[in-house]
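residues and backbone:
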Amino acid sequence: MRLDGGEPRVIDTGEHTPGSFAWSPEGTRIAFLAKVPETDEAKEARFRRGGAYRWDQEWRPSHPMVVDLAGGEPVHVHQGNDHVVQLAWSPDGASFALVTAESSNPYEAWMQHRLRIVSTRDGATQYEVETEPGSIQHMAWSPDGRHVAWERAHETLSLHNELRLFTLGTGETRNLTEGMDVSLDGFVWTGSRALLVSTQAKTRTELVRVGLSGAPSVLAHGDAVLALGNTDARLGKVAVIASTATRPHAPGVLDVRRGAVETLHAINPQVDQWDLAEVFVVSWENAGGQSIEGVLYRSPHHADGPGPLMVLPHGGPDAVTQERFSSWGHYFAARGYSVLRPNYRGGFGYGVDFYAANRGRLGAIELEDIEPGVDHLIEAGIADEGQLFYGGWSWGGYLSAWTLAHTGTRYRAFVVGAGVNDNVLGYVTSDINHGIVADWEYLGRPWRDPESYGRSNPARFLQDAQRPTLVIHGEADDRVSFVNGQLLYRALRDAEVEVDFWAYPREPHGFREPAHVEHMLTQWAAWYDAHRE
């Protein structure tokens, strides 16, 4: 569709269903990724065996296709057995940089990546750039087409802490962030000799200018948490999505020369009329004397004294809570609960050692970090010791189940959303949480290292649970399988603990249907309300 108006028109892609796509530099072609169609012979064979399939082995790869805007049959580029995860046109349109995996198996497609450069004409390989499999999150050409840069996790599971650069012609690869302990979160080229890199720096975004020569420097840009988009190197402008703790995400423009962010349009103006929580960073020391931080949403209903407190740990654990707008934080604060979102060890934003600190001690480390934070808020007169609540989603759900089994009657009620409640089940049934993921998190695998799994397994301790618990899970969850919710429900029933279980049809790990999202949050808050004094 033309930007100056008119009706959209359909570009025929034949039997290919487009996934992600990218315009060619001259704007006359579109490259897209599509699964390789099943052959007629394969369809016939599947029909004759009644649909039976080899579980976890039959994965059709996605390949790049190129279609001309004038129409015609899409050209199948780079035909092979590997699966293409990302593609980027070279500035002259002659090459693709491709991030590939051995198959479209989610486990391999998530973190077992290689990088190569191929011809856009026939898919012939021009350079094998990154041959050792590892996690590549973002990749982009320099404007002059002489370099390709990408983020990579080095010696970690998924913390991207290297910005690598490949130079065509010389074939040289080097690390532009050598010696920097960073959590990379995107980058853009601001010219052919310089990049602007976004890093997760505790609860904020830090922007770093990185040149192909010379020392990096920090670009001050204010208090907004940013996600970088497209760049106009000539104007020195970068499109961003900007947010603060009290301003929802909105499109904006970053002036690279001045470091100023201009919001283009507030897409949620109604928020200005809301009585939002006061949001600030709090810090405390864990038992080992290490400083731990969290983001606190103080309820406007209890701004002058202690009130109910909800602990809402982030998922992952490969993530970080930042000072960006949190609809959940403000929702529960509006319902009368101050919300603590702790940044426990095992998450991003605080360096590699912090990220790796919970390996082999999952659950125990997070508990050591979070509970002193609750004590700190009680001592500060913010939280009412008799009105403590806990809940989380995904790994936050795991921590909710773990804390339920390890804190007696400290909390009045729990909510476990899509949580891992049995680590062996998690290993067997998850689409990605096995293999080298287990080697990183548990320092082994359940068959070889059962004790490593046992000491971090909520199911092993659920007989000690005492507090009312609401279980929430989507039936189509392939990241943390639905059986985890069933297990927790049965265990708590056997322990004669008050428990309820809401199952949501069709929902994957992150809920998508608005009716389900609204119902889930309403039930979550109602569960806490029913167990307040």
Q: What stands out?
A: The chain has a mean pLDDT of 95. The CA atoms of residues 477 and 508 lie 4 Å apart.
